[in-house]
Amino acid sequence: MAHFINIVNYFSRWISIVSVFALIGMMLLTSSDVVLRYCGYPIKGTFDIVGLLGTVVIALPIAYTQILRRHVAMEFMASRGPKFVQTIISSIICLLSIGMYALISWQCTLLGTKMWRVGVVSSTIEIPIFPFVYIVAIGCALNCFVHLIDLYKLFANLKGE
Asked: 93-96: which pairs have CB atoms within 8 A and are 24 or more residues apart?
């Protein structure tokens, strides 16, 4: 299990770095477009590219943020009562999260495949949209693995005590 945890952690960190470069690209493209628009030469398709890169910036670091525990968490109920009750509440939350992210990943995969077959593209410069929908699916699927690891750790900690 330790090998699986290391793989998920490594991959989560790696795709988070990809999202950092996407954010830098968004910033540079937007800044360049503002300056060039002022000079009379706007960059065609900036709106489309920035919007599509936004999906990368949002979807990819979800799993790594969960690993670092940087998401907003409602711990009021989970921090009350005996350790066993806390574990049950946390495991229910993990299971619900796994179900939700698995459903999102599955539906994004179906939507991406449909967009690929139909040929949906962005409005101004006609970039295919399906790869970005698949990126959301990948980010959510990886977050499912992180929640599975969290669930494993919950029961490992309970068993160890």
From this structure: 94/147, 94/148, 94/150, 94/151, 94/154, 95/151
